[in-house]
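Aim 2 progress update. The chain analyzed this quarter is reproduced below.
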Amino acid sequence: MHLAQLNVGRLVDDPESDTVAEFMRALGPINGLGEVSPGFVWMLKDEDGEGATGQRFPGYEHDERYIANLTVWTSIDALHHFVTRSGHAMYLRRRREWFEKADQPTTVLWWIAEGHIPDLNEAADRLNALRRDGPTAAAFDLRTTFPEPAGSSVR
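Predicted structure tokens:
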């Protein structure tokens, strides 16, 4: 099994604005760091090979400020290490400079079969499930995790 991860957020200003320019410039390097991190499997990307900021999240198709990041990892530990102990952590700590405060979960995790590539529709369904039901084995977050489903190989 692998771990799918989605995080979404609405920028405080247009993606081309000076207000979020530092964040937007950092996307390529931070995504590159993720790709070489232990446990990284896959990332949704735009045609330019960068992150997926050009792809519209279901329900927010007309809002260019609403961006998504969809990745796959070998384990919760690998994802957690990248998020909290790599160069990514500095940007995570500063997220309020670039993103509006959300009143509902913006990150969701779920187990997928190894080799499965999730899309934004699947990810939106999982995020909606987390928002509706709270953390469950089908949709959870880094604070309330669930082990791989029984019968899967542990990584």
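The chain has one domain: 2-133. Helices lie at 21-35, 76-85, 88-93, 95-98, 120-133. These observations will guide the mutagenesis experiments scheduled for the next reporting period.
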